[in-house]
Write a structure and sequence with these properties.
The protein is built from 14 helices and 12 strands. By secondary structure, the chain is of the alpha/beta class. It has a domain of 181 residues: Rossmann fold, CATH 3.40.50. The strands form 3 sheets. A 7-stranded parallel β-sheet has the order 3-2-1-4-5-6-10, with helices on both faces. The chain has a 3-stranded mixed β-sheet with strand order 7-9-11. A two-stranded parallel ribbon has the order 8-12. Helix 4 links the parallel strand 4 and strand 5. The structure holds NADP nicotinamide-adenine-dinucleotide phosphate. The site of NADP nicotinamide-adenine-dinucleotide phosphate has 27 residues, from helix 1 and strand 7.
Length: 294
Amino acid sequence: MSIVITGATGHLGRLVVDRLIDLGQPAGRIVATGRDTSRLAALAQRTGVETRRADFADPTGLTDAFAGVEQLLLVSTTTVGQRFDQHRQAIDAAIAAGATLIVYTSILNADTSRILLADEHRRTEEYLRASGAPHVILRNGWYLENYTDQLPVIRQHGVLPGSAGDGRVSVASRRDYADAAAAVLTSDAPTGGGPVHVTYELGGEAFTLTELAATLSEVLGTTITYQDLPVDDYVALLTSVGLPAEMATVLADADAGLSRGELHTTSDDLAKLIGRPPTTRDQAIRDAVAQQAG
Ligand SMILES: NC(=O)c1ccc[n+]([C@@H]2O[C@H](COP(=O)([O-])OP(=O)(O)OC[C@H]3O[C@@H](n4cnc5c(N)ncnc54)[C@H](OP(=O)(O)O)[C@@H]3O)[C@@H](O)[C@H]2O)c1
C-alpha cells in the first residue's frame, strides 16, 4: 500500500515527496503522480520513488495511477473553472481504489471566503465531506513565494502594487505547507481512531502589504512603497505587464478578498503540525535575495 501524491511535478507536491523521504518513508512506498512525463522521470531519477502519469481530466487513467493507494494527497489543480470536476474525479478514483485517507489542499476560510479562487475549493470540500471518505482538509494560506518571486520587478520599480488595502494576509512558504502535508500523511492519528474529518486552517505570520513593503525596503536597502490600487486599475496593471486577463482578474480579486480579511487566520495549526515556527517574511525575502543573486 502506498502514499500517492498528486501534483508531484509541481512545486508543492515535489516538496512533499522530499519531506516524506526525509521523514524516513521508504521510496518504494511513495507514488508520485502528475501529467508532465519528463518532470516525472526527473523526479524518479532524483528520489527513487515510483512515478505514474495521472490527469484528473482522464478518470480511466486514474484507476491505474491510484492502484494500491492507502493515503492520497490531492493537490488542488491550476485550471480555475475546471478544478471542481477534476477534483471530484480524483476523489471518486481514490475511493474506488480503496484509499483510507484523502488529504486535500484547500484555501484559508474556504467555507466563508467570497474570493473567486475559494469557490471550487469550497465545492470540493463539500464533495469530500459528502463522500463519507476519511479525509483531512489542509486550508493553505498564501504562499510567501507569491511575493518573493516578484522581487526583481519590485526592486526595479520601487513599488509593491496591490488592492489589499489594510487587510492582513497569513502566509508561509511552500516548504512549510509541504511539511504540514507530510506530517498529516505520516501521522498515526488520522487513521488510528475511526472516521476522520479534520480541517486545518494553515497560515504563518500575518501582515499588511504596507508592512511587507517596509520589510522589503529594509532587506533590499532601498525604498519600496506599497501602492494600493482600485481592483480595476490593478487588473489593468497586471495585464499591461503580460498576464492573461483571466489570471489578472483572479489575482486582483484575491487581493480584494485579502482586504476583507479572507486570507487571514489566527490559527496556529501550521506551527503545531510542523513542530516549528513557519517561515517569516524577513527570512523568505533574505533567502530569495541570496538565491536570486546566486
Ligand atoms: N496558496 C497559494 O498561495 C497558492 C498559489 C498558487 C497556487 N495554489 C494552489 O496550490 C496548488 C499547488 O501549488 P504549486 O505551487 O505546487 O502549483 P504548481 O507548481 O503550478 O503545480 C500544480 C500541479 O498541479 C498539477 N495539475 C494541474 N492540472 C492537473 C490535472 N488536470 N490533473 C492532474 N494534475 C494536474 C500539475 O501537473 P503537471 O505540471 O504535470 O501538469 C502540477 O503538478 C496549485 O495547483 C493551486 O491549486 C496555491
